[in-house]
Amino acid sequence: MAKPTTRKLFKDYCLRRLGWPVIDINVDDDQVEDRIDDALSFFHDYHYDGTEKIYMKHKITADDINRRWIHCPDAVMVNHNSDSIVCKTNCF
Question: Contact 78/87 with Cβ under 8 angstroms?
Fold first, then answer.
């Protein structure tokens, strides 16, 4: 199998490694997302090459202000645990 390049592909890969669809994996999508977040956090903390800090330039528009969020490309993960808008590179 090719390396997963998106969060969805990584999630599907993890479920297949657990035996899905032959074995019914009885977990909620939120639980899977939480475990993926934990795994990525662990990888980031303990692997020096796991992430790369980048800064992206984006002109704030009136639509961004009204929406109260900024769209980030697929290759960027957004930190939802912060009041500010923080984007990080994707580890995949």
Answer: yes
Q: Rounded to an integer, what distance in angstroms lies between the CA atom of residue 63 and that of residue 66? A: 5
Residue with tokens 């939802």: 80
Amino acid at site 60: I
- Alpha-carbon Rg for the chain, nearest whole angstrom, is 16
pTM over 0.70: no
pLDDT tens digits, 1-26: 578 888 899 999 999 999 999 999 99
Scored b (16 or more CB within 10 A) or e, 53-78 reads eeeeeeeeeeeeeeeeeeebeeeebe
